[in-house]
Design goal:
- By secondary structure, the chain is α+β, with helices and mostly antiparallel strands.
- It has three domains: about 90 residues, Butyryl-Coa Dehydrogenase, subunit A, domain 1, CATH 1.10.540.10; about 110 residues, Butyryl-CoA Dehydrogenase, subunit A, domain 2; about 150 residues, Up-down Bundle (Butyryl-CoA Dehydrogenase, subunit A, domain 3), CATH 1.20.140.10.
- It has twelve helices and ten strands.
- The strands form three sheets. Strands 1-4-5-8 form a four-stranded mixed beta sheet. Strands 2-3-7-6 form a four-stranded antiparallel beta sheet, with no helix packed on it.
Length: about 400
């Protein structure tokens, strides 16, 4: 197995790392640049995005003909990790969720006309987008088959009624991908539809307050009461909504992990810097065996996460679905992020619990990692299902 990065990818990764250090971290350190929801405010963000575009570090995950850099999943793993050394990093390069996953799935499944109308404005950074799938009980969450929101076809339009919630970015989004039920077929009952925020027949019921910092546009509850969506705005064929969610969510789960590795490394960085200068009872924290054990374990667990992510990225690049690989990476890295923030706060003491560092931001953010895009338990069930089906072949190596 060759873990060598191509020179082009390393050049992009290094330039991203330099940009984060030179341009983004100073903005992050200035609390006047933050919005009310602990994210970067629109003015400073627009300036940083313009600079990133100017340096050719924009939408690296998309094909050149779409407006990106044509970086594969392995390259994305290296670059996304570097982006998220800052809590504000990915959005500055147009590589943050949910736009990241939405752009990739629109590029892969949209018609040329759909891509021009719905994808290109996101690529250019003119609008933001959202992916509307999750519903309140008894609707669908981790199990999309439970989706209750219905889209009834009437001639050339679908009429949508139902409810969604925890829709990331909805308050600021202009373009939406909606997963709704178009039939009661157990396998082909869902369809994917595109709509614009200015269309009548739907509303944001509320922006749901959460424990952690929020993405731009928050996490919202939506109500649909007669939204009409033209048939031409359907992605793929009717009944292929589940297929679209699989195309979108596998890579999107993995890109979350790529970014979380960057945040985990930032936690270690802050912990090491403090341990190197803080003394107690005549001894530097860095010289205490207990601290060395904490940091050594985190270093190992981060590297395990990087290997899991890289293997999943490799499997996606070779055309596989990487279901097992993505599930393993998702569970491990989500838990790693929480542990990294917790250990770093412990080493920093009261300073870590304060807002003098971004550790408390990362800690609050980290708890959602074990829930978004499938809870830990769901992914472990996926892995057990694969083990039952494959037996000892679960651990087989691909053969040339």
């Amino acid at each position: 197995m060759d873990f060598t990065l191509p020179a082009r990818i390393e050049d992009i990764r290094a330039r991203i790392a330099t940009f984060v250090d030179r341009e983004i971290l100073p903005v992050e350190a200035d609390r006047s640049t933050w919005d009310a929801h602990c994210n970067i405010a629109s003015g400073p963000l627009a300036a940083l995005r313009a600079k990133a575009k100017g340096e050719g570090l924009w939408c690296l995950q998309l094909k050149p003909e779409t407006g990106g850099l044509g970086v594969d999943k392995i390259g994305m793993a290296a670059c996304y990790e570097a982006m998220n050394r800052s809590i504000f990093g990915p959005v500055c390069f147009n590589s943050a969720a949910p736009d990241d996953g939405n752009m990739m799935v629109l590029e892969k499944t949209g018609t040329p006309a759909q891509q021009e109308r719905w994808l290109q404005p996101i690529v250019r950074g003119e609008v933001r987008s959202a992916f509307a799938m999750t519903e309140p009980h008894p609707g669908g969450g981790s199990d999309p088959q439970m989706i209750n929101t219905r889209a009834e076809r009437r001639g050339d339009v679908y009429v949508v009624k139902g409810r969604k919630w925890f829709i990331t970015g909805a308050e600021d989004a202009a373009h939406f991908i909606l997963i709704a039920r178009t039939s009661d077929d157990p396998r082909h009952g869902l369809s994917a539809l595109l709509f614009h925020r200015d269309q009548p027949g739907w509303r944001i019921v509320r922006r749901i307050e959460i424990m952690g910092p929020e993405e731009h546009g928050g996490h919202c509850e939506l109500e649909f009461d007669g939204l009409e969506i033209p048939v031409e705005n359907r992605l793929l064929e009717e009944g292929q909504g589940m297929r679209l969610t699989q195309i979108r969510l596998g890579p999107a789960r993995l890109t979350h992990c790529m970014r979380w590795l960057g945040l985990s490394k930032r936690c270690v960085e802050i912990a090491k810097e403090y341990a190197a200068v803080r003394t107690g009872f005549g001894v530097r924290l860095a010289d205490r065996e207990s601290i060395q054990l904490m940091l050594g374990k985190l270093a190992m667990d981060i590297e395990i996460g990087r290997l899991l992510v890289m293997k999943a990225a490799w499997e996606l690049d070779r055309g596989g679905f990487a279901r097992k690989e993505v599930s393993m990476a998702k569970v491990h890295v989500a838990n790693l992020l929480h542990q990294a923030a917790d250990v770093a706060i412990q080493i920093n003491g009261a300073r870590g619990y304060s807002k003098d560092t971004v550790l408390e931001w990362i800690y609050r953010y980290a708890r959602q990692a074990r829930l978004v895009d499938g809870a830990d338990e769901v992914h472990r069930m996926v892995l057990n299902g694969a083990l039952d089906k494959e037996g000892p072949a679960f651990w087989s190596w691909p053969v040339a």
